[in-house]
Amino acid sequence: MRHALVVVEKNLNVAAENNMIIILRRIPDNTQKHEISSYLNPVLQGGIFQKSGVIELIKIQVIKDTRTNSLEHHALVTIDSDVAAERVIKKLNGKAFKGKHIAVREYVYRSWHNDPRGSMGKENAEQQEKRQTDRRRNKLEVVGKASTKFSGDEQFHRTL
Fold first, then answer.
1. Tens digit of pLDDT for each residue in 18-64?
2. Cα-trace Rg, the chain
3. Cα-Cα-Cα-Cα dihedral of 64, 38, 33, 82, to 10°?
4. Predicted structure pTM score
């Protein structure tokens, strides 16, 4: 029985590894989840030689720049196939969505754990401080995940 448990855990890890989160940056503020799904689905459908993908989860985040008091809306979309997600990024990055050109990229979790500059050691201190300034914007805060105007069809929003 223990062997079966290891196999199940391994299969779950493989399934989690095949998911990719993509980010649709600076989407219009009146966007609904079903509109995002309709925008992505034609590219997600596979063909004869292409693997199809399925949207697992859509989250819309509102981020406030505290310096300018401006709001930005971003969509985080979990797609169950890395190949299909990469195809979405390649075909839709810079394309128009609801009359606005948006950036579509892979979403990467950032933390101090995966910062290579922190694990270098003292002998590489010069290389550690190579950057003149930090490229990340500061003074940002997540105002909320989807507001009531983002309450699209719930069939596209499935919890993992």
1. 799 999 999 999 999 999 999 999 999 877 788 889 999 999 999 99
2. 19
3. -70
4. 0.69
Which sign, positive or negative, has the C-alpha torsion 80, 13, 110, 119?
A: negative
Give the dihedral of Cα atoms 136, 140, 145, 146; nearest 10 deg: -100
- Strands (DSSP E) along the chain, which ranges? 20-25, 55-65, 70-79, 96-97, 100-101, 103-106, 140-144
Domains defined along the chain, listed by start: 19-156 (3.30.70.330)
Tens digits of per-residue pLDDT, 137-146?
Answer: 677 777 876 5
Q: List the structure tokens of 42.
A: 């034609």
Show the DSSP H helices in the chain as ranges: 2-17, 33-44, 82-92, 125-128
> What's the rounded Cα separation, in Å, for the pair 153 and 101?
24
Q: Residue 85: exposed, middle, or buried by beta-carbon count in 10 A (0-12, 13-18, 19+)?
A: buried
How many angstroms separate the Cα of 100 from the Cα of each of 28, 111, 123? 7, 31, 48
Q: Is the predicted pLDDT of residue 99 greater than 70, yes or no?
A: yes
pLDDT of residue 16: 53
Question: Residue 131's pLDDT band (boundaries 50, 70, 90)?
Answer: low
